[in-house]
Specification:
FMN_Rdtase-like_dom, Flavodoxin family protein, Flavoprotein-like_sf, alpha/beta, 5 helices
């Protein structure tokens, strides 16, 4: 089983990423369940604006698209900015819009029988809003969202320290992340054993 984590931090490599740090705890849990995990740091790529799988010369999205189709599990990891998903997360979802018109050999949308979850960091409140925004988009595309397929970290409303700068709340975020990983893996296995059929015509 393969999983793909798309880190939607605004910080290009090699800058430290709070979102990457929390994602590492979920990645470890996924690997503990036997999953192979790929990580994409979207801000490091040239993801052109648009809603097509390939936006032409220099577009790096086709490589990400290949990883999406090779994975049974997807995690979108985003920081919170102004109580909303990052602009990078929005760009990723917009590019995934092309998957709405793609089908497999059995005429099922290509996101069918794949599961997805969301991970959020931020030193302000708004994590549940970010989770709902991203989960809603992924569900529209065709992903199955298991119960409690998310984790987040923040220290309440208003400005404050970052995940990498403060140990408070890490135990809860890690515990919730382990539950998230377990739910994603087991839901993916269930769909593999009993796949969703193509939508009725």
């Amino acid at each position: 089983m393969r999983a793909l984590v798309i880190n939607c931090t605004l910080k290009p490599s090699p800058q430290p990423s709070n979102t990457e740090a929390l994602a590492a705890t979920v990645i470890a849990a996924l690997k503990g369940h036997g999953a192979e995990v790929d990580v994409v740091r979207a801000v490091d790529l040239n993801l052109k604006p648009g809603v097509e799988t390939d936006m032409g010369d220099g577009d790096d999205w086709p490589g990400v698209h290949e990883k999406l189709l090779a994975s049974q599990i997807l995690i979108i990891a985003s920081p919170t900015w102004l109580g909303r998903p990052s602009s990078v997360a929005q760009r990723v979802l917009e590019r995934m819009d092309a998957m709405l018109s793609e089908t497999d050999d059995e005429e099922r949308p290509v996101a069918y029988n794949r599961v997805a979850g969301v991970l959020v960091t931020g030193n302000e409140d708004g994590a549940h809003h970010v989770i709902s925004e991203i989960s809603g988009g992924l569900s529209d595309i065709g992903y199955t969202i298991p119960g409690q397929a998310w984790t987040y970290w923040h220290l309440g409303p208003g400005p404050g320290p970052d995940y990498l700068d403060d140990d408070r709340g890490h135990d809860w975020s890690t515990s919730t992340g382990r539950a998230m990983a377990s739910n994603l893996v087991h839901a993916a296995r269930a769909l593999s054993a009993m796949p969703l059929p193509a939508p009725p015509s």
